[in-house]
């Protein structure tokens, strides 16, 4: 398997004499055949700025940098695929941070590109090729014209057309899981926040956070437009907003008004679940699904990344337990990173967390972060590093009643034949 690298113009090459390497956190490592799959449809190859590609000289067996002005290359995977290794590189300028994306090791093998990844959910619904830009533009214009005073539709139109957000696009295409952002504020200061970064962070947020408080009418208009089929999902908590439960009052009112008019579809919230009293109110209003973002079940790691304000991981656990007990289908949006998530102590803590909270689904999501910056703020490893592949296998063995996937599903998914999910795992 040949090393893949790029020149300064972004042209991508495979090195005829160098074998590819990957990274597991700070450790450069070999890539095994069993860790590779063909580059998934919908992936993007990107050049990693401020890096140098590193590989193994096939003739000598020595680890070497590629000579000249070249950059390492990584793959950005579509949803449904879990990264097993980072690209093999060293920083050429350690003061610079990589843009906030989830870089995956990529190689050239035989006659095509391969990545160190694993299929963990059906990628169909979140593959960008299934979002027709012409149809999307027509539907954006239609709904914005139908609701000219609805600021949420105007906001989401930029998310869909400008940022190419698939959840926002679904809102206009009126299919699958659609977005209804509600909050401009947050009770956490996530190190890798994609919608708001302090000037001194060194990161550039790839999205712009909403800057207004929507009216209940604006929210209900979107919800009622979207909840038209039995399998539709409308979701509070998007990448373009803060923590939705900070706006619990308007969420509760909107849910109640919508459920007075229709029982169609499902209402979901993507949340950090730190505001337990607010979550209880939202659950009691008629919530169907809840996905809680977490990066760890260990307090020191969780706090280092999320920087929670006036809540703890215990509050998160209480919120999940309450929702589960009330019949809400609960899952976690588990931000995973090779060399960290697959540490022995992380795996053990997460297994116990899942058992205590009664989760139905672990959504494995690749953490978008500059690796060096992330590793610099979290605790050092205390136990053995087992690898992402083995971590997934341990979860499957220890949590047989919990599904491993990548995104939210309707309740039917949990009771029907999940042969596709079983196949990909």
From TrEMBL:
SUPFAM superfamilies: Radical SAM enzymes (SSF102114). Keywords: 4Fe-4S, Iron, Iron-sulfur, Metal-binding, S-adenosyl-L-methionine. Residues 181-351 form the Radical SAM core domain. InterPro entries: Aldolase_TIM (IPR013785), Organic_radical-activating (IPR034457), rSAM (IPR007197), rSAM_sf (IPR058240). PANTHER family: PYRUVATE FORMATE-LYASE 1-ACTIVATING ENZYME (PTHR30352:SF5), PYRUVATE FORMATE-LYASE-ACTIVATING ENZYME (PTHR30352). Coiled coil: none annotated. This is Radical SAM protein. It comes from Paenibacillus marchantiophytorum. The keyword Secreted does not apply. Its cofactor is [4Fe-4S] cluster.
